Amino acid sequence: MKIEMVAFDLDDTALDGKGRLSEKTRDAFIKAKEAGIEPVIASGRSFYSLPEDIIDVPGIRYAICSNGANLFDVKNKCCLRSFSLKPHSVDQIVRVADDYADRVYLDAFTKGVPHSDRRLLDTLLSNDRISEHRKRYLKKTRLPEDNIRDFIEQNKTSLDCMNYNVFDSALFDELYERLGNEVDDIYYTSSIPELIEISYKECGKGNGLLGMCEYLGIDIKNVAAFGNADNDADMIKAAGLGFAVANSSKLALDAADEIIGPNTEDSVADKIIELIEAGKNRSH
Fold first, then answer.
1. What pairing do the DSSP bridges indicate for beta strands 38-42 and 62-65?
2. How far apart are CA 110 and CA 152, in angstroms?
3. How far apart are CA 101 and CA 105, in angstroms?
4. What share of the chain is helix, strand, coil (3-state, %, to 5)?
5. pLDDT, position 283
6. Handedness of CA 106, 112, 118, 124 (dihedral sign)
7. For 117-174, how does the pLDDT look when each residue is reduced to its tens digit (9 = 90+)?
8. Angle 180-154-178 (CA atoms, 0-180°, nearest 5)?
9. How far is the CA of 273 from the CAs of 35, 47, 228, in angstroms?
10. Measured between alpha carbons, how far is 12 from 102 in angstroms, rounded to an integer?
């Protein structure tokens, strides 16, 4: 197997426990590109939420964003492919959320820009269910909307995706079931226990990876993919080689060909260097 692309999730996979890119991992991406292997971001984050230190890495040119809703050329800030939620799906998503008006906070993403219910952002400091680095991330990247439902209504023909922010595990399961039963034409998943991510039915990182492979002319069998969460599982399974870091969800672990060390130990970087060396040995 000749690896021609490495697709990698960011949070709790390629980034460390505090949401940072280590020098070792940065160098691994650069070395991959120098070896003829395309490093591709594959994130649930929207394009304009991607960390600057990732975008600035020499050799990183492409990104699968918002769980496959968008494919981007990150250097030119050019969207290569996009899907939008259907307006009737948006209405159904809001209708379900309205039954839990004071317990579910909505996010809505349009053209790679995330907008959040201001109530979520106003309560971050007092919410001990959210990690400190995620609080910083949300404050930095989200545009607050005083009336998120009005914003959604005004933009419902052009929404990349939506989120439910929910901090009650029993309610999370209930919402998951209701989405499956009451909302049409959607793909829904989760990257952390407090978030349900909803996009058009043809999204998902697995389909996003297929789209990026088609764009770059790379056979998906020649892709190595790295992830940690439920929203990574279809990508891990679709790739020629699928890797889950040790801190992964059960769904991601079960999808993987191989389980590597945790994200806190530069395990993605180590595996990328191993793949580069294996490719050199084959060429000799």
1. parallel
2. 10
3. 8
4. 45, 25, 35
5. 63
6. positive
7. 999 999 887 888 888 888 889 999 999 999 999 999 999 999 999 999 999 989 999 9
8. 10
9. 10, 27, 19
10. 29
